Amino acid sequence: MLDLLGMIGKGIGITLLCILILLIAALLSVLFVPLRYRLAGRKETEGRPEGDVRIHWLFHIVTCFVRWQGALHYGLKICGISVYDNLRKAEKEKQEKRQKKEKKQKKQKKKKQKQANKERAGKKADKLPEATPLIREVTATAPEPQKASPNTATAVGAESSDSVPGGQPPEDDAAGKAPQASLTEGKTPEAGEHKKHWPGSIVQKIRAFFRKLADLLRKIRELPARLAEKAAHCRETVAYYIAFLQREDLKRAFDLCRRELYYLWRKFRPRKVKADIHFGFADPATTGQVMAFAGMMYPFLGKDIVIRPDFEEQVFCANAVIKGKITIFCLLKALAILYFNKDIKRLIRIWKKEEL
Fold first, then answer.
1. Distance between CA atoms of 77 and 60, rounded to whole angstroms?
2. Which of 44, 62, 34 has its CA nearest to residue 329?
3. What's the CA gap between 219 and 197, in Å, rounded?
4. How many angstroms separate the CA atoms of 234 and 226, rounded?
5. 141-186 pLDDT, tens per residue?
6. Phi, psi of 268 (to 5 degrees)
7. Are the C-beta atoms of residues 231 and 239 closer than 8 Å to each other?
8. What does the pLDDT look like over 50-108, one tens digit per residue?
């Protein structure tokens, strides 16, 4: 039993050790295996410019690409299998839209067919034979409902009016006129009251005007003091930041940032640059001036960059390739040095006015 437990524990330990080794190997590969990039561009005499950017890692296990050939095309591949592709996604969306349109069209056709079938059924019902003689006799002998004529309605109205003694209107009309009279009577005193209060409203407006004028004069008196306060505050802030720029720790932090940027440039700068440029302007003098400037830049450009001028025709053709690599460990190293530097932390606090 103990031997069995020992074998099980040994197997679990070996598997855990293997998993740990794999994780460490993956972490080291991510940190130290560089990301290689390739930039390529091309421009022919006739046609649009084309560009291609590729970044791959660990023998093309992971590849990202961005292309421009009249349209933007980008995607991600893992072990040569396309994980994401914007053009394929757009094609899928187009296919889905087409399928939806086809479904809608089919539904509309079915609805039209149903409506046509209903219309045909209605036409067939209209074309059925006429009713039998017995049905005609029954419909002819059926009594028709009597309709009230307008003459009878007027007669009834006259009788109702004559039934009122003295030909006087009903009490409702008299009661309806009474509130109208009271409303008209009630309007006159309100108008009189408004006329009585009219001089008082003018006095209130005059008082409000003088109050606003007094507030304006008070603000004008206080304006020089406010301007002096703002000027003093501006002088203090300017003096504060001038003293900040003259600090020794700022100079040390600036030198550190410059060294780290130069370090990153040495690590990530392009290793191979190849270019073939063929150009020419309508004016040969302009072509000569550009060629003179390019000649001064030849020591910095290198042997792999070829420039061919054309003094007879207006032409521009170019083909360029740039290759390099980026190591994540170097980037993390530079960022960690800058992040944990005491001078930079102190300067950030001083800039935010958290520390003097």
1. 9
2. 34
3. 34
4. 12
5. 544 544 444 444 343 343 444 444 444 444 444 444 444 444 444 4
6. -105, 0
7. no
8. 999 999 998 889 999 999 988 899 999 999 899 999 988 888 888 888 888 888 888 88
List Cα–Cα distances, 294 to 264, 287, 338, in angstroms: 28, 11, 38
Three-state SS at 308: strand
For residue 122, what are its two tokens?
């209605």
Instruction: Say if residues 37 and 323 touch (Cβ distance below 8 Å).
Output: yes
Q: Which alpha helices (DSSP H) does the chain contain, by range? A: 2-32, 86-126, 133-141, 150-162, 171-245, 248-268, 284-301, 328-339, 342-351
pLDDT tens for 313-339 read 899 999 999 999 999 999 999 999 999
Q: Map tokens 């009585």 to a residue.
A: 196
Per the CB < 8 A criterion, the answer to whether 278 and 322 are in contact is: no
| Residue 336: half-sphere exposure toward Cβ, Cα within 13 Å | 6
Alpha-carbon distances, residue 193 vs 57, 162, 188, 198, 212 (angstroms): 92, 48, 9, 9, 29
Q: What are phi and psi of 138, to 5 degrees?
A: -65, -45
What are the backbone angles phi and psi of residue 23, rounded to the nearest 5°?
-65, -40
pTM: 0.60
